[in-house]
Amino acid sequence: MQKNMESVRAGLIKLSLDGINSSDYRKSVVNLLKQAIPFDAACCTTVDPETLVSTGSVTDEEVERIHDCLFEYDYIREDYIPYRQLVKAADPTATLSQATGGILTKSERYRHVLSPAGFQDELRAALMHKGACWGYLTLFRRFGRPFFTEEERAFVASLAPSIAFRLRKLSYASTSESKTRSETEPGILVLNKRLETVSANTAAEQWLLRLREWEGIAGDALPRPVRTACFRALSGASEPSPAKACIHIPGYPYLTIRASRLNGPDRGLRLAVSFEQAGPADTLRLMAEACELSEREKQILDALIRGMSTKEFALSLHISPYTVQDHIKSIFGKTGVSSRGELIWRLFSRFGVG
Question: Which residue intervals of the chain are DSSP H helices?
Fold first, then answer.
């Protein structure tokens, strides 16, 4: 067991990010983990680090069949080790068997979702890097297998920061120049409380097709980012974060998906989902988070986008022009550019910031 763990650890470190996208990287992580930890199914999800809404999942067919029920227990119902708690925990990994003291029937998620699907234990890890969450990893074991051990949980915990670091890096590095422009009008999708389509405009239908292709979803199933945004909207006031996520699909500018509840007389619950090119605030936020810019560097980046000179910005913050220049050099180093012009070009071509 220990030898396999060290081999997997070395394999993850050696795993190259050159020419790989986030989805393929997550598939490789799951395949490597299986060499050290026996499990029967897995789900590796990326999330928007601000809202914790899914931006896409790599999962098995058995998990996909119960995914909406799992979303319901994470976003709406109360149960053991929800990800919103793991993100804030000192150790963001846990197993359902340990959390329930070995009495799995204490968990409603186990009784109503996992057990009927043939699953027994769960191992969950919020993938954290420097206080920001970049994804979730869930491993499942079927009946007949032992519970996940403390050694296995600790091993996943030791790998989680490295996986999160790679996901953060891929969220920026995997973006490429937008060869195709998005729709000129927002996409609008209306769903009922069962997340069935009531109506949609052409732009929404186009974005749904692109998202299904990106996630490898067949048929007319809702893409996972849309579903999780809807569950967040259904959770109401108990969740402080907005029901939105910013997503990058190669070949397109960043996309903002936002869900909200609709109020109307005697028509039942409705959800409105919008799809539109992300604005400068969201795209700059994601770039700043992915490149680990400091708060002052974020301020200076915003000033650069607005065309302020070094002298103007120094006067506005009461710091010296030399200090401003030092911050600009740090921004260049973190974003991999060498001039203001190249930085602006990268923001425009990769992130759609005008």
Answer: 2-14, 22-33, 61-65, 67-75, 83-86, 96-99, 108-109, 150-173, 202-215, 224-234, 280-290, 295-305, 310-317, 321-335, 340-351
